[in-house]
Amino acid sequence: MAQSVMQAMILAAGFGTRLRPYTLICPKPLFPICNVPLLHILLDKLAAAGCGRVVVNSHHLADQIAAAVADRPEVILQHELEVLGTGGGLRKALPHFSEGPVLVMNGDIYHDVDLNALLAAHAAGGCAVTMALHDFPRFNTVRVRGNKILGFGNAAIHEELLAFTGIHVVELDVIAQIPALGFFHIIDLYEMLAQAGQIGCVRVDGCFWQDIGTPQDYLDLHRRLLADKKPAWAISNQAHIGAGAVLEDWGAVGAGALIGTDVKLSRCIVWEKSSISSGAQLTDQIVCPEVTG
Questions:
Q1: 218, 269 in Cβ contact below 8 A?
Q2: Strand residue runs (E) in 135-180
Q3: Which of 6, 32, 28 is nearest to 17 (CA)?
Q4: What is the rounded CA–CA span in Å between residue 136 and residue 213?
Q5: 227, pLDDT greater than 80
Q6: What's the rounded Cα separation, in Å, for the pair 245 and 259?
Q7: How confident is the model over 43-48, as a mean pLDDT?
Q8: Nearest-10 Cα torsion for 271, 272, 277, 279
Q9: Burial 101-112 (b: 16+ CB within 10 A, else e)
Q10: What separation in angstroms does the CA of 209 have from each of 103, 108, 185, 220, 240?
Q11: Kind and range of the H or E element at 75?
């Protein structure tokens, strides 16, 4: 029987610079996915895996992150006054964790990775860190041989390059090795652990996985989720769509959105409380209350 995830951390403090100008008004982990904030999707996924404690860190637009988790009793919100990086934020969270490993997840990925299977593999493998990897050529930078990670960079003979999903399990004593103050990039520590044979990996090839690092990635995730569905538009019942509006291909319309008459939309994501003037024709657009593409 797979071991349940007992504690986790979602990294949600980044600026999302490649998603500007949209991240100037909404932090990346709260971008709506078919009208549901991504952070809520990830928290529900952790809850379904049996996780009873989740640290969520925040920095950029932290008040929005705080509001999003206010009714989640399992969440410990960790506000960071300065940018601490993937390692510094994890180290700051150390006092919140009890005995046992921690599952760490990036806050900008949508996935269906089996978290219980990953935790069970970590328990069985005996490594300090276990990463979920897959073959994703665009991001293949992790050097692997068998079920061990050798490092991060170009592969040598008998080594394979795979992509890190942004999901891994780490022991508390590893987190304790991170400097207690200031910015720290976790890969700097993991490079040393990999050379010592202390980082294992689990392949999750074939999983549904998509990051939302760029506007095109964000739109592409919706294409993958909606294009084959009927209807292929996720429309909130609190949205208003004017007479004569035509919605083509796929897309989403959030609560409180106002779409004028004779509007034509194709492959667009319309955030809640956004408005589109009558007669507008938009394709491949993210529409926000303050940013219209």
A1: yes
A2: 142-145, 148-152, 160-170
A3: 28
A4: 15
A5: yes
A6: 8
A7: 94
A8: 60
A9: bbbbbbbbbbbe
A10: 17, 11, 23, 11, 32
A11: strand 75-79
Q: What is the mean pLDDT of residues 110-132?
A: 94
In 3D space, the residue among 230, 216, 237 whose CA is nearest the CA of residue 285 turns out to be 216
Residue type for 47, please? A
pTM: 0.90
Among the residues of 16-98, which ranges form H helices? 38-48, 62-69, 85-92
Determine contact, residues 169/130, Cβ cutoff 8 Å: yes
Kindly give, in sequence order, each residue whose CB lies less than 8 Å from that of residue 171, ignoring residues fewer than 6 positions away.
Answer: 101, 102, 128, 129
Which residue ranges form the domains of the chain, and what is each CATH number? 7-129+164-207 (3.90.550.10), 215-287 (no CATH)
Interatomic CA distance for residues 225 and 60, integer angstroms: 28
Q: Which residue has the tokens 């569905």?
A: 229
Amino acid identity for residue 163 in this structure? A
Give pLDDT, residue 185. Answer: 84
Residue 54 C-alpha from the chain's centroid: 14
Strand partners, 270: 253, 287
3-state DSSP call for residue 157?
coil
The residue count of the chain comes to 293
Shortest CA distance to 59 belongs to which of 8, 7, 97, 23? Answer: 23
CA diameter of the chain: 65
